[in-house]
Amino acid sequence: MSDVQKTKAKEETKKEEVQKVLVQEDQPEYQEKIMFLVSTSFQAAILTWCLCVLSLGYLKLPNRMFGMDIPDQPRVDSTFAAGLLGNILAGWGVSVGGGGAAKKKKKEGEGNGAIPTGNGYQTIIVKQPLELIAKPAEVPRVDPITNRPIDPVTGKLV
To answer: Is pLDDT of 109 > 70?
Structure first.
């Protein structure tokens, strides 16, 4: 065998090895695609089941259908279906009820009768017949120089 034939034979074996490697790399990718499709199909089936169970919780069947009497059915507890639905949607990146924490922080102090003051909150109580009672803030004001409390009515040191 000449050197040219030897190099051609080596190149052919290298090409065959490269093709084998490519085939081996394609095979797991194909398997991953199949697993993705199977898992997505199961998730879609479970999602459909959850939506049906949740929808049936709001429906009431008639007493008679197709000439048959239907007995009263007990209400379906849809907690499990709602949990599965939330987990599947979260896995797909859908956030149900997101941003609630930001709304809570924004509304903090609103609606409870508290009025923000300089150093705390002042609570106003309204009674019938109309009698206004204002309670001072829980934290008394303190003089920064003498560290003595300040009377909230007169403003003098106590």
So the answer is: no
DSSP state of 74: P
Side-chain half-sphere exposure of 26, counting CA atoms within 13 A: 6
Query: Taking the model in full, what pTM does it have?
Result: 0.41
Distance of CA 78 to the CA centre of its chain: 18
Average pLDDT on 140-152 reads: 85
The tokens describing 17, both together, are 């090895």
* CB-count exposure of residue 60 (10 Å: 0-12, 13-18, 19+): exposed
Residues 83 and 5: their CA atoms lie apart, in Å, by 68
Structural domain boundaries in the chain: 3-99, 109-158
By three-state DSSP, how is residue 65 classified? strand
DSSP string, 16-38: HHHHHHHHHHHHHHHHHHHHHHH
Angle at which helices 3-56 and 79-91 pack, to 10 degrees?
150
In the prediction, which pLDDT does 87 show?
87
pLDDT attached to residue 72: 75
